[in-house]
Design brief:
The protein contains seven helices and 15 strands. By secondary structure, the protein is α/β, with parallel strands linked by helices. The chain folds into two domains: 18-170, 3-Layer(aba) Sandwich (Rossmann fold), CATH 3.40.50; 173-224 and 260-322, 3-Layer(aba) Sandwich (Rossmann fold), CATH 3.40.50. It comes from Schistosoma japonicum.
Length: 326
């Protein structure tokens, strides 16, 4: 039995059920659909475009399966699906896939996915013996019937190559630089901080736009498992090694030295300055608290952290409350 607006007896719904984010612009044949990830964003987009909400239902069945009902025609229309990643990331992906497949099955002319934060975008490299999960997600999105993807500040530009459809990778930097110039009165006395060397290209863009110096935090608090990239498998039994060496006739290569864990150091001067930390995704607050502590030790009197696309509270320590940390 399906769980809809009227709940049958004995059926439990673990997620809010309702009509979410559809708008229709009849004159241009455009339809705006959305899942349950960010209804406020959908309302803001529809209000800005002056389109009325449509009629779409995304809900859980009693078996916890996701079901979608599109209650108006999309035949021959361009469908925009607004769905971002949240803490419930796996359900967000399934909703997006099912909505896109439903639109393709209903003969939509084009299906354009608007995904501000693309889930699993941080898993774009193979580590140890793990998969490249972002490539799997890209293949699933393309197979569901999506013809075009619009996203914001991909964690890695190379992810665009995983898709077989066009991608628009928009930038948030023009809006954030304008915000810094408007709301930070003493921003000329600030420095742009890259929390790790991997953020340097992104932070350099902000530093050049704002004409501010760049500071880099080198080294990172990592788990010991991250120091080993998986290339050094456990050694074989000595008898097997000797047999293989005799057959091949080659000397064994020496084992590679494991990667060292560098200490947390600061490259640049932040004394008596505002430290503006730039990053695209904040998924572990404790790392930024550690960076803020280091900046305060080096003389920074205020820390401001800007995140381009996504923020998720995870391991947040009590020291966050006493920092000027936003």
């Amino acid at each position: 039995m399906l769980c809809k607006s009227v709940r049958p007896v004995g059926c439990t719904v673990h997620r809010s059920v309702g009509v979410v984010g559809m708008g229709l612009l009849r004159s241009k044949g455009m339809v705006i659909l959305a899942g349950n990830s960010h209804p406020e964003l959908v309302k803001a987009v529809c209000h800005h475009l002056d389109v009325r909400p449509g009629n779409c239902l995304v809900f859980f069945r009693s078996s916890r399966e996701t079901e979608v009902e599109i209650r108006e025609t999309v035949r021959g229309r361009d469908v925009y699906i607004i769905q971002s990643g949240t803490k419930d990331v796996n359900n967000d992906i399934m909703e997006l896939l099912i909505i896109a497949y439903a639109c393709r099955s209903a003969c939509a002319r084009k299906v354009i996915a608007v995904v501000p934060y693309l889930p699993y975008s941080t898993q774009s490299k193979r580590r140890k013996r793990g998969p490249i999960t972002s490539k799997l997600v890209a293949k699933m999105l393309c197979a569901s019937g999506i013809n075009h993807l619009i996203t914001l500040d991909l964690h890695s530009k190379e992810i665009q190559g995983f898709f077989d459809v066009p991608i628009d990778n928009l930038r948030a930097s023009p809006f954030l630089t304008k915000y810094i110039e408007t709301y930070i009165t003493d921003y000329r006395n600030a420095v742009i901080v890259a929390r790790n060397p991997g953020v340097v290209p992104r932070a350099t863009s902000y530093a050049e736009r704002l004409r501010l110096p760049l500071v880099v935090i080198h080294g990172e608090e990592r788990d010991e498992s991250d120091n080993n990239d998986g290339r050094n498998s456990p050694p074989l039994d000595q008898s097997v090694v000797e047999k293989r060496t005799t057959q091949v006739g080659l000397e064994l290569l020496p084992m590679m030295i494991p990667k060292a864990k560098p200490p947390l150091t600061l490259v640049g001067d932040v004394n008596s300055r505002i430290a503006i930390i730039i990053d695209d995704i904040i998924d572990d607050v404790s790392k930024y608290v550690t960076a803020a502590d280091l900046l305060h030790e080096r003389g920074a009197y205020k820390d401001i952290c800007y995140c381009n696309t996504w923020f998720a509270q995870s391991r947040c320590t009590a020291s966050t409350g006493r920092k000027s940390y936003r």
